[in-house]
């Protein structure tokens, strides 16, 4: 990868996994644009990182707002001229029932809301920023997925997620995994690498305090994929450095 300082954008960066991912990337000497829907909250989250001497800058990006997509692209173009790392971290879960099957009662409204944020917004933002990522010597795109997007594990009785079938969330992550595969193939003749990351079940607002992992460990997969060397994988689905089944 380039010896010049790299630029990373982390969506949903003001708390949880996004915040810790921003911290870990900045600790590697990367300039991190910490994306938040509410700029004031983003600046509040970035302040202690800056106090640690980390190069972190809060930026406004509501992934559901296409005007924000255009604005952040223009900002990065003006300020840096390139984007080396895009971590599509922002996501939502509206089913709220991880351990039950919501298929029979899921509403169309919840399906649309979940897919709008977890899938359509990711595709739209990535397409908007891709011209800047193409300018990088070694662009990296990391899509925050989940083991709950694995069709193989959902269909395998006795698997760790066999009984966990929150329909809207799970299928949005399956679609996101498909995007990672297709985008990686489309960019296979470039130096850009695209991968899906499963952070693990992490203690966050979404994961709840029942989760066994802390955010420090939960962020490691994203950071690894964001800083892959030239011979690293693309078009894969990983937890830590282990491959997960689609």
UniProtKB/TrEMBL annotation:
Signal peptide: none annotated. CDD domains: carb_red_PTCR-like_SDR_c. The keyword Protein transport does not apply. It comes from the Bacteria. One of its GO terms (molecular function) is oxidoreductase activity, acting on the CH-OH group of donors, NAD or NADP as acceptor. Keywords: NADP, Oxidoreductase. It holds the Pfam family adh_short. Belongs to the short-chain dehydrogenases/reductases (SDR) family. This is NAD(P)-dependent dehydrogenase (Short-subunit alcohol dehydrogenase family). It comes from Granulicella aggregans. The lineage of its organism: Bacteria, Pseudomonadati, Acidobacteriota, Terriglobia, Terriglobales.
């Amino acid at each position: 990868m380039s010896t010049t300082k790299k630029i990373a954008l982390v969506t949903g960066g003001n708390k949880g996994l996004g915040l810790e991912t921003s911290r870990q990337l900045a600790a590697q000497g990367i300039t991190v644009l910490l994306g938040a829907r509410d700029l004031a909250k983003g600046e509040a989250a970035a302040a202690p990182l800056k106090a640690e001497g980390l190069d972190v800058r809060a930026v406004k990006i509501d992934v559901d707002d296409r005007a924000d997509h255009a604005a952040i692209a223009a900002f990065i173009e003006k300020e840096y001229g390139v984007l080396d790392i895009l971590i599509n971290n922002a996501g939502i879960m509206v089913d709220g029932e991880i351990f039950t099957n919501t298929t029979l009662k899921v509403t169309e409204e919840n399906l649309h809301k979940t897919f709008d944020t977890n899938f359509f917004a990711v595709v739209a933002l990535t397409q908007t920023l891709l011209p800047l990522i193409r300018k990088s010597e070694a662009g990296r795109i990391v899509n925050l997925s989940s083991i709950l997007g694995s069709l193989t594990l959902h269909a395998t009785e006795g698997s760790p997620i066999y009984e966990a079938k929150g329909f809207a969330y799970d299928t949005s992550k399956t679609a996101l995994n498909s995007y990672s595969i297709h985008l990686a193939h489309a960019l296979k003749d470039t130096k850009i690498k695209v991968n899906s990351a499963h952070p693990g079940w992490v203690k966050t607002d979404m994961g709840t305090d029942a989760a066994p992992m802390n955010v420090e460990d939960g962020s490691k997969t994203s950071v690894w994929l964001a800083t892959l060397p030239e011979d690293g994988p693309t078009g894969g689905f990983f937890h830590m450095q282990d491959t997960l089944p689609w």
